[in-house]
């Protein structure tokens, strides 16, 4: 639901939606990269494509990848929470 003032439209790009979905899907304690497609509701056969898709988020500092596991960084949680509030969506990850 969008809570923007009447007449104002919040524009969210496809790439931003994908980033929001990926950040939101990662559990607070992280997950194995191989399990990430399942958390997104995707086929396990897409593990390689999903691993490639998170590279820009790792480079941006929103996701940390270590020992074949990913977790959302403090910066990633902050961006997720801020952006969801801007577009009028409640929710997000619990703080660890």
Could you describe the 3D structure shown?
It is built from five helices and three strands. The mean pLDDT is 86. With 96 residues, it is mostly helical. A three-stranded antiparallel sheet has the order 1-3-2. 44% of the residues lie in helices and 10% in strands. The chain is globular.
What's the mean pLDDT score?
86
Strand order of the largest sheet: 1-3-2
- Helix vs. strand class: mainly alpha
Q: Considering DSSP H and I runs of 4 or more, what fraction of the residues is helical? A: 40-55%
- Output the helix-strand order: HEHHHEEH
- Beta-strand fraction estimate: 5-15%
Number of strands: 3
Question: Major sheet, described briefly?
Answer: 3 strands, antiparallel
Structure annotation, total helices: 5
The general outline is globular
Characterize this entry briefly.
With 96 residues, this protein is mainly α. Helix content is 44%, strand content 10%.
